[in-house]
């Protein structure tokens, strides 16, 4: 039988008989409970099977196992973010409590396996469970565990992430000084990993490196913003470009502009996604080769653009969740070929011990959407030239092919370790790309190599010729990139540094269509708003106030954000070419009534871990018991806290404070990681400004379980809990005895809060009569909705405080786009 005839027969078979077995199989699995009793789709696609059997991506004897694994739902995997020093505590909590509760648990007659750590992920920070998403959401026995996952995901302490998706960032081997570009970053689970790696040393508030996370899809950029915000890093910038022509950025180095070359690039390209069919079951119905044929060109252009912007010695990881060699090895082979030795595949076989994979293919052929196979570009008739491109084939020159070491690519097959399918290749750059040969070698450690424009490479990529970006194709003087030897352009000469304003540029050179983000305005160091802040918080002289910015050029500055020195440099030198969606973390917010206080700005929890090392006053060290009281009560009177706490605060004037818990290694039963919280010292009481999920996180770490109840949260004090009523009333200071003695919050009318919303009247959520504490803005407390304009505040019933929805403000996506359970790729 001819190939075409065989193909047609396969198509017919698929339509007629193919589904029957699968339906039966589906019923059987439903009975087993994994799909919660819902009818399944038919998990059959004969073409898919035919295609991959021909390409031999799976050893013949493993074929049934491979197909069997694809038909099973994908188990959930979770990653504890190693970013915060709290990771160890979470791990402890998971192992000693939540995983213990899963022992001997049965759901729908099926035993739940206790999660196991992924052997190749460092420090037991990633875990594999046999719980599908659906089961986690629906099973009452798993409610507590599910809530834990949701809440800890929101506060950035846990990420539900596919196991295979954790691999690329690990293989990038990120160091805190690396300048990193994540080319196709949304929704951002890998970006989060990269950010965590930058902050591996938590004692450094501003690592030298940064992550620029890009996505072409503007709406998905806001998913990225949400993801990045959970990690409160001043070293992240979200930008919105087509990665295949992402502009070359520049930095001011010693007063001269130099092109920015990245030390690490993640190129996690858009793909046909057939490795995700365990999760995205639609792939079963829709799979054809057309998607991969159409994506190949874009994938190659993105990878080429990445390679151009990689520093010499830098690493780039190319990955897809497709098993298809057209999107995988063909892209890598073509990139290597056009690099003429500038790029090399890295042997990473020893880098993730315990991970199983198949070596990359060196031979493959190309199938058209209607089933015609071609082993050689020469065989492809002209009529097919728009669909099939020469770069889709392996190189014909065997010596060249061998030198590419395509076997160094990794293809992860679902049945090997119960994951999705995935492809990864790690490249290192030895020299400039051939068309950037004038790229000078300059400076020392990182991103210091600049390339010069050059005509585009001639290789066709999926029907299009790879064009260097607009910036690259301009004369050097126009793009501000000048050879070191020939002299450098003055950083100030291009007008992009207009009084520290870098925002939606009135660009003549490059039109950023539809771009309407608020500007990023750096605050001049002599701005009169600084002295009161510096005095009030006794900021250390090393505090880099030049890195503070606002998002408005007019009116009062309400929120102050902070970026690292390096990102400031990037922002100031690229406003004309960059669509920045978001950057910076909020460190200070103006109080509505703050003008009457000694300082108009209160601390913001989002940026407290960055700001705290520079704050030298208004710090109150609190015990674990006090932390519980502060986080579970709306605005506890001073007398509800320990005398030690009160004594530290009693001489302080009203206003924002830092509440700090220091672990005591001599008391191993207590929380062993530090906590820094923003608070308010009122007239008679304290208040904390900690968002809901972060509160719940701290409470859980201290053994206080919070159970979800649609209407109201319930606190359950577990055995380990120290919250047994808080410190004794006898600790109350004599001078407080005359204070009103009602329930928390009853003294509200006596004491204005930071935003002047004192009083027991209407709260931010509009619920009449709810008592608001003396320290007004809603704090996301356990028994009410957040009010006021404290953006970081959120209540337990899911409302997020005030300004989050504000148009193009950097907070506008907070809580918005994120999927319910924080599940990302
Ligand atoms: C596989 S997903 C990336 C997943 C992401 N790296 C993560 O770990 O969460 C591919 C992303 O590429 C984006 N994309 C598609 N075409 C693009 C292009 N030309 N430039 C930049 N991003 C693109 C899509 O919007 C999508 O968000």
UniProtKB/TrEMBL annotation:
Keywords: Methyltransferase, Nucleus, RNA-binding, S-adenosyl-L-methionine, Transferase, tRNA processing, tRNA-binding. One of its GO terms (cellular component) is cytoplasm. It is found in: Nucleus; Secreted, Extracellular exosome. Its EC number is 2.1.1.203. Residues 756-767 have a biased composition (Gly residues). The keyword RNA-binding applies. This is tRNA (cytosine(34)-C(5))-methyltransferase. The lineage of its organism: Eukaryota, Metazoa, Chordata, Craniata, Vertebrata.
């Amino acid at each position: 039988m001819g190939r075409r005839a065989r193909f047609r027969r396969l198509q017919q078979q698929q339509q007629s008989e193919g589904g029957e077995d699968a339906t039966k199989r589906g019923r059987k699995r439903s009975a087993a409970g994994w799909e919660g009793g819902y009818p399944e789709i038919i998990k059959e696609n004969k073409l898919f099977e035919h295609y991959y059997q021909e390409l031999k991506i799976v050893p013949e004897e493993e074929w049934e196992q491979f197909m069997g694994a694809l038909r099973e739902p994908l188990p959930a995997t979770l990653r504890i973010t190693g970013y915060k020093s709290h990771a160890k505590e979470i791990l402890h909590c998971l192992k000693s409590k939540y995983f213990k509760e899963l022992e001997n648990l049965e759901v729908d007659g099926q035993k739940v396996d206790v999660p196991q750590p992924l052997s190749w992920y460092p420090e037991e920070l990633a875990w594999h469970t046999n719980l599908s998403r659906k089961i986690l959401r629906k099973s009452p026995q798993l409610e507590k565990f599910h809530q834990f996952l949701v809440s800890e995901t929101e506060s950035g302490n846990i990420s539900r992430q596919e196991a295979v998706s954790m691999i690329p960032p690990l293989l990038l081997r990120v160091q805190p000084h690396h300048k990193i570009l994540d080319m196709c970053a949304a929704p951002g689970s890998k970006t989060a990993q990269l950010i965590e790696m930058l902050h591996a040393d938590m004692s450094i508030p501003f690592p030298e490196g940064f992550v620029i996370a890009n996505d072409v899809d503007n709406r998905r950029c806001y998913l990225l913003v949400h993801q990045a915000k959970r990690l409160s890093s001043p070293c992240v910038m979200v930008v919105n470009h087509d990665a295949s022509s992402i502009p070359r950025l520049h930095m001011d180095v010693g007063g001269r502009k130099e092109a920015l070359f990245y030390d690490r690039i993640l190129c996690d390209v858009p793909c046909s996604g057939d490795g995700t069919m365990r999760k995205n079951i639609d792939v079963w119905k829709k799979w054809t080769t057309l998607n991969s044929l159409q994506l190949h060109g874009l994938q190659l252009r993105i990878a080429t653009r990445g390679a151009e912007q990689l520093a010499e010695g830098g690493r780039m990881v190319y990955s897809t969740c497709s098993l298809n060699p057209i999107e995988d090895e063909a892209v890598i082979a073509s990139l290597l070929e056009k690099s003429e030795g500038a790029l090399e595949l890295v042997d990473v076989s020893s880098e993730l011990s315990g991970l199983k994979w198949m070596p990359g293919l060196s031979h493959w052929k190309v199938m058209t959407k209607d089933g015609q196979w071609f082993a050689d570009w020469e065989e492809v008739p002209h009529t097919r030239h728009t669909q099939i491109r020469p770069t889709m084939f392996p190189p014909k020159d065997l010596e060249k092919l061998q030198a590419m070491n395509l076997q160094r690519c990794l293809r992860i097959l679902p049945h090997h370790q119960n994951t999705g399918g995935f492809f990864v290749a790690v490249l290192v750059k030895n020299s400039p790309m051939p068309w950037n040969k004038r790229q000078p070698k300059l400076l020392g450690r990182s991103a210091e190599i600049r390339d010069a424009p050059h005509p585009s490479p001639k290789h066709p990529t999926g029907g299009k010729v790879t064009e260097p970006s607009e910036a690259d194709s301009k004369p050097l003087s126009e793009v501000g990139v000048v050879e070191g030897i020939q002299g450098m352009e003055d950083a100030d000469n291009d007008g992009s540094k207009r009084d520290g304003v870098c925002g939606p540029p009135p660009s003549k050179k490059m039109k950023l269509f539809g771009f309407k983000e608020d500007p990023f305005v750096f605050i001049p160091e002599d701005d009169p708003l600084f002295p009161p802040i510096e005095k009030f918080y006794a900021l250390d002289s090393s505090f880099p106030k030049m890195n503070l910015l606002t998002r408005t050029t007019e009116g009062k500055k309400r929120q102050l954000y902070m970026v690292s020195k390096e990102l400031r440099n990037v922002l100031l030198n690229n406003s004309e070419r960059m669509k920045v969606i978001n950057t910076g973390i909020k460190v200070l917010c103006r109080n509505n009534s703050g003008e009457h206080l000694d300082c108009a700005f209160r601390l913001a929890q989002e940026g407290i871990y960055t700001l705290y090392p520079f704050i030298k006053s208004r710090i109150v060290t609190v015990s674990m018991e006090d932390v519980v009281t502060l986080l579970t009560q709306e605005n506890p009177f001073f007398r509800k806290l320990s005398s030690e706490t009160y004594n530290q605060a009693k001489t302080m004037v009203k206003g924002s404070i830092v509440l700090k818990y220091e672990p005591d290694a001599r008391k191993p039963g207590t929380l062993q990681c530090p906590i820094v919280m923003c608070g308010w010292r009122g007239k008679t009481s304290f208040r904390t400004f900690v968002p809901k999920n972060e509160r719940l996180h701290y409470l859980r770490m201290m053994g206080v379980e919070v159970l979800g109840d649609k209407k109201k949260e319930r606190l359950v004090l577990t055995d380990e809990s120290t919250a047994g009523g808080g410190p004794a009333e006898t600790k109350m200071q004599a001078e407080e005895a005359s204070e009103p003695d009602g329930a928390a919050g009853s003294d509200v009318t006596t004491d204005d809060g930071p935003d002047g919303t004192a009083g027991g009247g209407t709260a931010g959520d509009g619920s009449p009569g709810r008592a608001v504490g003396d320290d007004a803005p809603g704090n996301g407390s356990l028994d009410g909705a957040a009010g006021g304009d404290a953006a970081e505040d959120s209540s337990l019933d899911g409302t997020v405080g005030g300004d989050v929805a504000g148009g193009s403000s950097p907070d506008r996506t907070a809580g918005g786009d994120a999927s319910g359970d924080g599940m990302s790729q």
